[in-house]
Amino acid sequence: MSLKKGLSRRDFLKIAGFSVVPLAVQHLPLFQRRALAQAVELSMWTWYIEQEDEFPRLDEEFNATHDDIKIQNRIYGLTEYLPVLESAIAGGVGPDILGPHVHAIEYGLAGQTVDLNAAMGEAFMSQFFPPTRRQFAAGDAQYALGWMAQTFGFFSNPALFDQAGVAAPPETWDELIEISDIFKGKGILPWVFNESDKWLGADFFLPLITQATDDPNLVYALDEHTDPAVSWNSEPVIAALGLIDRLVKAGVFQEGVVGTNWDQATALFYSGGSAMFFAGSWVPQGIVQNAPPEFASSYRVFKTPAWAPGKTHWTGNQAGAALAVNAKGQVDAAVEYLKWLYEPDRYATAMNNSLSMPSTEAAAELVNDPIMKEMTSWLPEGAPHILFGAGSWDAVSNAVQGVFAQTLTPEQAAEQMENDVVAVRSR
After folding, report:
1. In this structure, how many other beta carbons lie within 10 angstroms of the beta carbon of residue 310?
2. pTM of the prediction?
3. For the chain, does the N or the C end have fewer beta carbons within 10 angstroms?
């Protein structure tokens, strides 16, 4: 998911109440309701701190050009957002538009958020990259729109590549292990990885299942866990875990990989302490904000290595941030606002200004930053890495960390995943 670091807090007690339209008025056509009432007051809640400077600007533009609808965005800290959202939705007083977080499918199936295929129409929905639609779909319905898409790759320090005499990034995992030996021979740490947080290990692992099979639908089937022929304790999962096991044994990571967090890993990479760093497309914003200027102007990015020569460089794609419409809110006005918000030039400007990745093909063509442009080009050939199924994320992240820590073999980790998912789903 997007934004894996601590964020500023907002005070929930300061949230304003929601406007209420009389029941008789609600059933009138939209234009008649607007004629009878004051401007509709729309609320939107997210934890998308990347756009903390963009949403006020967008709000001002929208409110200045729309007499009948007014929008107010609220951005929460990541740790406080989910409890606040869950409480509001449970109480039937949630925002009109929301970042659904881990509940994107659950809320839709429960009728708490609307089917956007029906509400927005295919002409609008077809502009989104297929992976940013598929992840929020259940049957023929789609319950969220990708806001910030993401892909994953390797960020590199060209100075350390030059120092080690490594001329090109690796094409395969075998090549990555080979150049790691070269780096170590020069006293350079090949790859710093933060696995104390567990989420990055899962983000790294899940696309490896697609690499092992060339089937991006398998991870969806594993997450849904409804097909008796599909199990986490299966050969493709064991093969993907086996690659992690091999990388750890080859010494490509720093000592104490499971004790290293995000801040420690990025600080080491930004300061020239490692040649490579694996993460998602939110990293360029962090580099601009936190890395030394000389590093920010020189770092590079390359595709995740392929399973074997000639194979696809499958990497995580999808959208780490999304927007959904509250079924109990002001749906028509929310739909109108979202169509305005995703207008290609407007949407691309907000993404460019925040160094974020758009989820629509038209906006993707307008990406400016060369690193972000390169990573955006990987969206069509990415693999799922976000799990919504009951028990899936905890089961995967815990078992993957066990392999990184060398406390579980790949076979043991796969068995633990399956057992943990089954245990949650049988409660």
Report:
1. 8
2. 0.85
3. C
Q: How far apart are CA 213 and CA 44, in angstroms?
A: 40
**Is the fold of 12-150+318-377 the same as that of 152-316+390-425?**
yes
Phi, psi of 277 (to 5 degrees): -145, 130
Q: Which CATH superfamily is domain 152-316+390-425 in?
A: Periplasmic binding protein-like II (3.40.190.10)
Give the residue ranges of DSSP H helices in 168-234: 173-185, 199-213, 217-224
* Domain definitions of the chain by residue range: 12-150+318-377, 152-316+390-425
Cα dihedral value 203, 209, 214, 220, nearest 10: -70
Of residues 200, 171, 387, the one with CA closest to residue 283: 200
Sheet of strand 274-280, all strands in order from the earlier edge strand to the far edge: 189-192, 274-280, 152-156, 300-302
Question: How confident is the model over 131-147, as pLDDT tens digits?
Answer: 999 999 999 999 999 99
CATH code for the part of the protein at 12-150+318-377: 3.40.190.10
Residue 67 · residue 336 · CB < 8 Å = no
Residue with tokens 């929208």: 62
Closest CA to 244 of 207, 281, 277, 275: 207
The tokens 């749906």 sit on which residue? 331
3-class DSSP state for residue 122? helix
Q: Is 114 left (phi over 0), alpha (psi -120 to 50) or beta?
A: beta
Whose tokens are 């993707």? That residue is: 364
Report the amino acid identity of residue 400: V
4 contacts 197 by C-beta, under 8 angstroms: yes
230: buried, middle or exposed (CB in 10 Å: 19+, 13-18, 0-12)?
middle
Give Cα separations from 3 to 128, 148, 288, 290 (angstroms). Answer: 21, 10, 15, 15
Name beta bridge partners: 46. 75
Instruction: Collect all residues with Cβ–Cβ distance below 8 Å to 320 and sequence separation of at least 6.
Output: 1, 2, 3, 148, 149, 150, 280, 282, 386
Q: How far apart are the first and last CA of the chain?
A: 26
How does pLDDT run across 44-84, given as a tens digit for each residue?
A: 999 999 999 999 999 999 999 999 999 999 999 988 999 99
DSSP letter assigned to residue 13: G
Average pLDDT, the chain: 91
